[in-house]
Design goal:
There is one protein chain. The chain is an alpha+beta fold and 343 residues long. It folds into 2 domains: 234 residues, P-loop containing nucleotide triphosphate hydrolases (Rossmann fold, 3-Layer(aba) Sandwich), CATH 3.40.50.300; 100 residues, OB fold (Dihydrolipoamide Acetyltransferase, E2P) (Beta Barrel), CATH 2.40.50. The protein has 9 helices and 19 strands. The strands form 4 sheets. Strands 6-7-8-3-9-10 form a 6-stranded mixed β-sheet, with helices on both faces. A 5-stranded antiparallel β-sheet has the order 13-12-11-14-19. It has a 4-stranded antiparallel β-sheet with strand order 2-1-4-5, covered by helices on one side. The protein binds adenosine-5'-triphosphate (ATP). The site of adenosine-5'-triphosphate (ATP) has 11 residues, from helix 2.
Length: 343
């Protein structure tokens, strides 16, 4: 059967992938697609199957069932080196006794010597390390080593890059800087990418599309803003975080909570439900629900106040120049009535 346009356009298609270790399922009927030049992030709690998914794509793990297609080719019988994937691991995995240039040329066996040299120079330029070609990995900083690992992965121009927690060895400040650089390099390389991280904030920042995994399945897929604004259930909302889950009961088509009521989105009358309230959804007003400020988190441009209302703790975002002492009685309400509600 000829491929449809959407099928033929995908760089990666996983269909019904299952994998168990010693009888315990790690992946359950997992489907995943990545389009040309798309960066897909896989996020989910520890043990949900993110790394196993990458290893199945790379051919380092044989699935028990399902199919793996990369750039339109069925990869079931292809070894890792023939799948057109580049892998960037958590620990860089550079060869310590080889120079930067030798590390980068590792996957370029098929090229003539002069072409190999040219490509190594090209990618070292792309990752911003043209002067470092003769150094050994131990003579580089962590961030530089990560860029060499990336250069090695993109040198053979793979259809798909696989990045597994690429910054877990870097401190938070360097991580932010290198993330920005790596993202630009991946985009410039023209490869599509699957980026695994347990840091959901990072997953939302780097990706064109996000897949949230839970217990070996893809439980929600969407753009970062779809996942942020419309988590499909309370579990995804709780995992993404940065919000409070406020309980209430549906009455006259509205979910009534201690902070006012919101549209109940078709949840039956009398049912208990939960609304996701982010700090920016809570405003301080003259007439509203009374609460007490119990804590303040200062985060540079903002203050996040923790407010106790009716035995419930809620967070409210204010500009950093709004100073409210602990113990102050304030009145708050919800800014909008169109918030994510889960039955
Ligand atoms: P983390 O964020 O902690 O790295 P993850 O989402 O990447 O987790 P995986 O490493 O894919 O999770 O593991 C999924 C499940 O499969 C876990 O329960 C793990 O213990 C199990 N598992 C993975 N590899 C093996 C293995 N080689 N042998 C046995 N069990 C394994």
């Amino acid at each position: 059967m000829p491929l449809t346009e959407s099928q033929s356009q995908q760089v990666l298609r996983l269909r019904g992938i299952s994998k168990a270790f010693a009888g315990v399922p790690a992946l359950r009927e997992l489907d995943l697609e990545v389009g040309p030049r798309e960066i897909l992030s896989l996020i989910g709690p520890s043990g949900c199957g993110k790394t196993t998914t990458l290893r199945v794509i790379a051919g380092l793990e044989v699935p028990d069932g399902g199919s793996v297609e990369i750039a339109g080719r069925d990869c079931r019988l292809l070894p890792p080196e023939r799948r057109s994937v580049g892998f960037v691991f958590q620990d860089y995995a550079l060869f310590p006794h080889l120079t930067v240039a030798e590390n980068v040329s590792f996957g370029l066996d098929g090229l003539h010597r002069s072409e190999r040299k040219k490509r190594v120079a090209e990618v070292l330029d792309l990752v911003g390390l043209p002067e470092m070609s003769q150094r050994l990995p131990r003579e580089l900083s962590g961030g530089q080593q990560q860029r060499v690992a990336l250069a090695r992965a993109i040198a053979p121009k793979p259809a798909l890059l696989l990045l597994d927690e690429p910054f877990s060895n870097l401190d938070p400040q360097l991580r932010r800087q290198v993330r920005h650089e790596v993202l630009a390099i991946v985009r410039a390389s023209g490869s599509a990418a699957v980026w695994v991280t347990h840091d959901h904030d990072e997953g939302l920042i780097v990706a064109d599309r996000v897949v949230v995994m839970k217990e070996g399945r893809a439980c929600q897929a969407g753009t970062p803003s779809e996942i942020w604004r419309s988590p499909q259930d309370a579990w995804v909302a709780g995992f993404i975080g940065h919000g409070d889950l406020l309980k209430g009961t549906v009455s006259n088509g509205r979910l009534v909570t201690s902070l006012g009521d919101v549209a109940a989105n078709g949840i039956p009358e009398g049912a208990e439900a939960t609304v996701l309230v982010r700090p920016e959804d809570v405003v301080i007003v003259e007439h509203g629900s009374p609460g007490t400020v119990v804590r303040r988190h200062f985060s540079g441009s903002d203050n996040i106040y923790c407010v106790q209302i009716d035995g419930t703790l809620l967070h409210c975002r204010q500009p950093s120049d709004v100073e409210i002492p602990r113990g102050t009685e304030i009145k708050v309400k919800l800014k909008s009535d169109a918030l994510p509600v889960f039955s």
